[in-house]
Design goal:
Layout (H helix, E strand, L loop, with lengths): L2 H14 L1 H39 L3 E5 L2 E3 L6 E4 L5 H10 L5 E12 L2 E2 L2 E2 L4 E6 L3 H5 L3 E4 L4 H5 L4 E4 L1 H8 L9 E4 L2 E9 L13 E5 H8 L6 E6 L6 H16 L10 E4 H44 L1 H9 L4 H38 L10 H27 L3 H6 L2
Parallel strand pairs: 7-12, 9-11
Antiparallel strand pairs: 1-13, 1-14, 2-3, 4-7, 4-13, 5-6, 8-11, 9-12, 10-11
GO molecular function: transmembrane transporter activity
Keywords: Cell membrane, Membrane, Transmembrane, Transmembrane helix
Family: Belongs to the ABC-4 integral membrane protein family.
Length: about 400
């Protein structure tokens, strides 16, 4: 019996035991689904994070006061003096490097904007900013216009609202532009609506209400605000020089003594991206470990089923041996059966894992993540299936090939 005929015989045997084949393939499919699904979800989440940072631009950096909070007690462990308005303005004027600089401050993250009788939940983010804020932060206007120097110089009561604020207050029935809304007791005319940002921002960026800086200071009253400075370097290659220059200028403005650490923090967008990539790398290792353990359990189950199959087909093996089948051909048949069953389960597991993984990543990223097809993980899944088939099929195949034909024919 040649090798091709052996393959046909193995396939006929699989087709003749459809229920066992389906159940066995399901065991493998579940293992592959866990492996490919977890890794696909991680890749999808990473893709969404990359898209979020791409909006900011890799050449941006932010200067802000540090405020590290203990995760255990919730208490502030290290706190710098806030960057005040005058320091932020001084930095923008004195920074000599050719960068686009935006100054902003968060007034509140729990505002409740109103339009007529309609109102939002008290979770809107009111931000004071300047004309460079939208560009540096990666926002795109869907409708209307940006803040202008006239709005800032005269502290006009104008606002740019996020997509969620617009949809909630105006319900897609009224054009928000030039309509008046009330925020924290003050009335603002809407001059722009932002496109939906979504992603991993937990919705805050779509619930934003951007107002001029001086309006934000007035809205805060006697409460002391802290200001953030976000700069976009001319290009990525000059970012290191720009960050070094910004540190020197800010130390002068903040009057940090020589030899003492900075009283502020500079966060680079590419550094944050590297940190997220490092975290997802650890998640991939963990996901691979979980999938491998699941597949190990599936391979043991397949090994058990193949051993039962050898026992059930003892007389068949005896007949084939009496007709001249060699131990090598017997081994080949059982190995082929195990590998084919694994491949059937593997293909089903890859499809399920691809679907489930992308569904999870889209739910986590708020529907902003694209459909990810991780060819490497899919290929790995198929290779693992073949390896599992070999692992689970070798021992039963060897055992079947060593059966004595006379004893096998006597088996009931």
């Amino acid at each position: 019996m040649d090798f091709i005929e052996n393959i046909r015989e193995g396939l006929r045997s699989i087709a003749g035991n459809r229920l066992r084949t389906i159940l066995t393939s399901l065991i493998i499919a579940i293992g592959i689904t866990s492996l490919v699904g977890i890794l696909t979800a991680i890749d999808g989440i990473q893709s969404s994070v990359d898209s979020s940072f791409a909006g900011l631009g890799a050449n941006t950096f932010t200067i802000a006061a540090r405020q590290e909070v203990s995760r255990i007690s919730g208490r502030v462990r290290q706190q710098d003096q806030p960057v005040d308005y005058h320091q932020a303005i001084a930095f923008k004027r004195r920074f000599p490097y050719g960068a686009t600089i935006a100054i902003s401050t968060v007034v509140t993250s729990s505002a409740q904007p109103k339009y007529g009788s309609r109102k939002m939940n008290p979770n809107a983010l009111v931000v004071g900013g300047d004309e460079a804020y939208l560009n540096v932060k990666g926002y795109t206007l869907q409708n209307g216009r940006n803040l202008t120097s006239n709005d800032l110089n005269y502290s006009l009561n104008v606002a740019i609202i996020g997509s969620e604020v617009a949809n909630t207050l105006f319900e897609k029935k009224i054009n928000p532009i030039n309509q008046s809304i009330r925020v924290s007791g003050a009335q603002y005319k809407v001059i722009g609506v932002l496109e939906r940002k979504g992603g991993l921002s937990d919705g805050n960026e779509d619930r934003i209400i951007l107002i001029p800086l001086d309006n934000a200071r007035a809205l805060a009253g006697t409460r002391k605000l802290t200001f953030d400075i976000t700069a976009s370097a001319p290009d990525l290659s000059s970012q290191d020089i720009a960050v070094g220059e910004a540190r020197g200028v800010m130390r002068q403005i903040r009057r940090d003594p020589l030899g003492q650490p900075d009283s502020f923090e500079i966060q680079r967008a590419d550094d944050l991206l590297k940190e997220t990539q490092e975290i997802t790398g650890y998640l991939r290792v963990g996901g691979f470990g979980i999938g491998f353990i699941t597949l190990l359990g599936a391979s043991i189950a397949l090994l058990n089923i193949m051993l039962v199959s050898v026992t059930e087909r003892t007389r068949e093996i005896g007949i084939r041996k009496s007709l001249g089948a060699t131990p090598k051909r017997i081994r080949e048949q059982f190995l082929i059966e195990a590998i084919v069953i694994c491949l059937l389960g593997g293909l089903g597991g890859v499809i399920l894992g691809l679907s489930i993984g992308n569904l999870i990543s889209m739910l986590i990223s708020g529907g902003e993540g694209g459909f990810v097809v991780p060819w490497a993980w899919m290929g790995l899944g198929i290779v693992v299936c073949v390896a599992v088939g070999l692992f689970a099929g070798i021992y039963p195949a060897v055992r079947a090939s060593k059966l004595d034909p006379i004893e096998a024919l006597r088996y009931e």
